[in-house]
Amino acid sequence: MTTGARRSRPALVTAAVVLWLVVCAVQLVGQALMIGRTAALYGPWSVVVYVVGFGLIGFVVFGAVRLARGSGRARFWLAVLAALGLLGAVVPPYGLTTAERVAAALAGVLPYLPPARAWFPPRPARAPKAQQPRVVGWDPDTGEPVRASE
């Protein structure tokens, strides 16, 4: 039973959301600055890569908003993206992209720390499936399974 009182969001979750939004803003500005130069050098079809990049940034922003609201799935998928980004952070050249990826990895870890876990609802318990009788053969006329009767 809920009392209707609003829970306060843990500071770690708020910090993770802010980090995700800052990383997205930096990447958005970086891509926006590069799109014109890339199109001039390689032609208009090179912009397709940036459109996909903008879509991925939009997905991460959507995930950060859902994370702020307490979505466990958003927490999981943002952690997956952070882990993939951290793999790219160990590859040279180092610089702003490495700092972005390390910040994203930190934002992916923060919601899993113990003080932040209570913000996310627990997964519902799985109900066991009813055991069906064993299939002993197939009906040659209809193709339906013939089940053993106890």
Give the N-to-C terminal Cα separation.
43 Å
Number of structurally distinct domains: 1
- Along the chain, the helix and strand elements come as HHHHHEE
Into which percentage range does the β-strand content fall? under 5%
Total DSSP helices = 5
Q: What is the makeup of the main sheet?
A: 2 strands, antiparallel
Helical fraction: 55-70%
- Order of strands, main sheet, comes to 1-2
The whole-angstrom Rg is 24 Å
Summarize model confidence as the mean pLDDT. 87
Descriptive account of the structure:
- The chain is mostly helical.
- The protein has one domain.
- It is built from five helices and two strands; from the N terminus they run H-H-H-H-H-E-E.
- Strands 1-2 form a two-stranded antiparallel sheet.
Question: What attributes does this structure have?
Answer:
150 residues, mainly alpha, two-stranded antiparallel ribbon, 5 helices, transmembrane, membrane, transmembrane helix
Helices and strands, with pairings:
Blueprint: H1 11-42, H2 47-68, H3 72-89, H4 96-109, H5 114-117, E1 135-138, E2 145-147
Antiparallel strand pairs: 1-2
Helix pairs in contact: 1-2, 1-4, 2-3, 3-4
Concise structural overview:
The chain is 60% helix and 5% strand. It is mostly helical and 150 residues long.
